[in-house]
Structure formats: structure tokens, C-alpha cells
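User: Let's play a game. I give you a shape written as C-alpha cells, and you guess the letters that built it. Ready? Here's round one.
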């Protein structure tokens, strides 16, 4: 079997498994890049040495180590499938480990920046109420942009304070939100006219679902209004995760809220916690508290 035919069969298998169009696009694009590098060979001719050469090829390109990881992750998934299907004899993924990526410090919004951001909306209009509610959900619950755009009206339970989200791989999860986000949703949904569209966030004039480009336009406007040049949707998710842990939340519940499959993907949000631990220790130090209690009459 040729490499290209194997890739096409792999993509069909991923579609049968119920993977999203975004996931299929990711596999198609990254595996096409590998196919262009390796050439028109039979899939049974792939070797571990060739895979390592491909990784070295990626490192010479103008991409980050995280992006290189993304390409290799797709290749390993494809080769694992080829091994399971019997198209290759050697279990290459077992020996072709994922390269380490340079971990960057996670950026989060400051208190002042959050105040500036939420002062930018005209809450007297449907569009302003909608945009405010979107930012409130993303900052208070850590939702991805794709998850916000696919939220349906019947999936958001405002009185109970939670929504049912379709995450990566079409996996559903329950995500809570706080009182201010609840208030924002009540304000927005109160302005929504009765229409047949089931999507929660819509374009006012046409009452059609809000698109990815529409939200990105919104964030470009907010950058200028709030004077936060680095503002982007994922910054709100990062800010939520970091502040959730700083406020005393645990990594296990954070993992469920964010929809990560492994705990390792959550632990990188612990980068700002040591300072919080030091502050807490000054309050809860066993010996210091023992001394304080001994001085009490």
C-alpha cells in the first residue's frame, strides 16, 4: 500500500470514529507535510531512522518546538494505526518518542486589565451584551472559542449555573460558571428574540450563528478599546486556569472543567502557584501558629 493511500484510509477511519472536522483537518495537513518530505514510498518502507530525519527537518524550519511536537504527534498516531492494521511490521511509535517542547511562561490578565476589558461593552445593545457574555464565560469557565461557538441554548442551564459543552473529540462535559457570568447570560438571553436557531450566540441582524471570524473581529476591537495588545481568546482560558488554582482550586477539578484528557496538560498552570504557597505558609505555618497560640492568655 502506498503512503498516500494509507493516509486516506487512516482519515476515513478517524471519521468513522466520530472525530470532528477540525481534527480531520489537523491530521490531513500534518500528514501531507510528512508525505511531501518522505516522498511516494510504500507505507511498509517507513523506518524509525526516516522518522527521526523528519523531526530534524522540522527543527530546521521556522516553527516553534511546540509546533514540531504537533507534527510528530500526528505522525505517531498515524504510525500506531498502521501497526495495528498490519501495514507496518515494526512498532515505530513505541521507539519514536515525542520530542520535548520548550515550555513558555503562561501569560494571564491582571486585575486592572480585566477591569478595563469588562468596561468596554455597551450593555444596552444585544451585541454588547452578547460580547460581554462571551468574555465572561471564557474567563469564568475557561471555555475554548470553539466550545463557545457551538453552545446551544438548551445546553446552558442559567439558574443552576452550568452548561454542557461539546469539547475536543466530540466529548461532552459539564462546566460550571459563577454569579457574574450568570448575570451576563441572563442579560444577553433576555434580549434574544424567539427564533429557530438553536445556537446560543448569534449575529443580531441575521439571527445566524456567530462565526469564528466574527469573534476574532470582536477581540481585535477589544484590544484597542481595553488597550491590551496581547488580548486573544485563549488568554482568557489561561487566566481562568491560573486564577482558579491561585484561589484554592485543585488540579483534578480543573482538569475536568478544562476538558483535558491528562493531568499533565493541567500542571503547566502551576507556574504561578509557588508564590501563592509561600504566602499561604506564612498564614498556616504549624510552628508559627503554635508560637502564637502559646502567647494567648
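Assistant: Ready! My guess for every position:
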Amino acid at each position: 500500500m502506498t503512503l498516500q493511500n494509507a493516509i486516506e484510509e487512516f482519515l476515513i477511519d478517524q471519521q468513522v470514529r466520530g472525530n470532528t472536522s477540525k481534527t480531520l483537518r489537523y491530521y490531513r495537513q500534518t500528514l501531507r507535510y510528512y508525505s511531501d518530505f518522505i516522498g511516494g514510498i510504500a507505507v511498509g518502507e517507513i523506518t524509525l531512522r526516516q522518522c527521526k530525519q523528519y523531526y530534524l527537518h522540522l527543527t530546521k524550519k521556522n516553527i516553534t518546538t511546540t509546533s514540531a511536537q504537533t507534527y510528530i504527534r500526528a505522525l505517531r498516531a498515524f504510525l500506531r494505526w498502521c501497526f495495528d492494521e498490519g501495514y507496518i511490521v515494526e512498532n515505530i511509535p513505541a521507539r519514536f518518542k515525542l520530542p520535548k517542547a520548550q515550555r513558555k511562561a503562561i501569560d494571564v490578565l491582571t486585575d486592572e486589565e480585566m477591569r478595563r476589558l469588562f468596561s468596554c461593552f455597551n450593555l444596552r445593545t444585544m451585541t454588547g451584551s452578547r460580547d460581554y457574555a462571551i468574555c465572561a464565560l471564557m474567563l469564568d469557565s475557561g471555555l475554548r472559542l470553539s466550545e463557545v461557538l457551538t453552545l446551544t441554548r438548551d445546553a446552558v442551564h442559567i439558574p443552576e449555573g452550568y452548561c454542557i459543552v461539546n469539547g475536543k473529540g466530540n466529548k461532552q462535559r459539564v462546566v460550571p460558571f459563577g454569579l457574574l457570568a450568570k448575570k451576563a447570560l441572563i442579560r444577553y438571553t433576555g434580549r434574544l428574540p424567539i427564533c429557530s436557531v438553536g445556537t446560543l450566540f448569534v449575529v443580531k441582524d441575521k439571527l445566524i450563528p456567530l462565526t469564528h471570524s466574527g469573534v476574532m473581529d470582536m477581540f481585535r476591537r477589544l484590544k484597542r478599546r481595553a488597550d491590551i495588545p496581547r488580548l486573544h481568546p485563549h488568554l482568557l482560558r489561561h487566566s481562568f486556569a491560573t486564577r482558579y488554582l491561585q484561589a484554592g482550586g485543585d488540579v483534578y477539578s480543573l482538569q475536568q472543567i478544562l476538558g483535558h484528557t491528562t493531568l499533565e496538560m493541567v500542571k503547566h498552570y502551576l507556574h504561578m502557584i509557588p508564590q501563592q504557597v509561600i504566602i499561604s505558609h506564612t498564614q498556616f505555618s504549624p510552628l508559627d501558629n503554635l508560637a502564637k497560640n502559646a502567647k494567648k492568655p
